[in-house]
Amino acid sequence: MELTDTIDQVVHLTKDEKLSIEKYFTVKALPKGELWIKEGQYCNHIGFIKKGICRIFYNDQDGNEISCFFMPENNFISSYTSFLTLAPTKENIEAVEEVEMLVINREDLEKLSKEVPKVQIWRRVMAENLFILLERRISMLQSKTAQERYENLIKENSDILLKVPLQYTASFLGVTPQHLSRLRKNSVK
User: Fold this and answer.
1) Mean pLDDT of the chain
2) If DSSP states are collapsed to H, E and C, what string results for 103-117?
3) pTM (predicted TM-score)
4) Is 28 exposed, middle or buried (0-12, 13-18, 19+ CB in 10 A)?
């Protein structure tokens, strides 16, 4: 199973530990465009994307949607700040295409962590990786030109460009859709 294989890359799991982990996760299907987490809600779950892509975004003071991250298959997703602090989330998580995920709630994650202590290590590594991802995102937005950000996206996540609407990609890059069109033309040259 992709879920336990992904966790196994961080902490080596026995067959019994994999079975224990799998029993705590439930399947959740999201049709394209549906919100899994909505701004103002409390996030009590962590999901593992088996199929599809989710977009994490927030609304700025003018009501514009600003895409922060795209999470493709075989990645964990949550509104982690809300999950950790028990505060309402400031972000939204939307299915960009039809999504199938495996979900665990906070209470079950705590039970699982006691049943399979290695899960605590995985949780720490997941939090560390999130910190690194956030730091890279901030650095990219502050130190790279729009063209460099676009070329980096092509290099690291070209499949996202094919599956995500252009307006979402533009907001992720911090440009307008029109500017994104110019960046795309410049890249072809």
Assistant:
1) 92
2) EEEHHHHHHHHHHCC
3) 0.88
4) middle
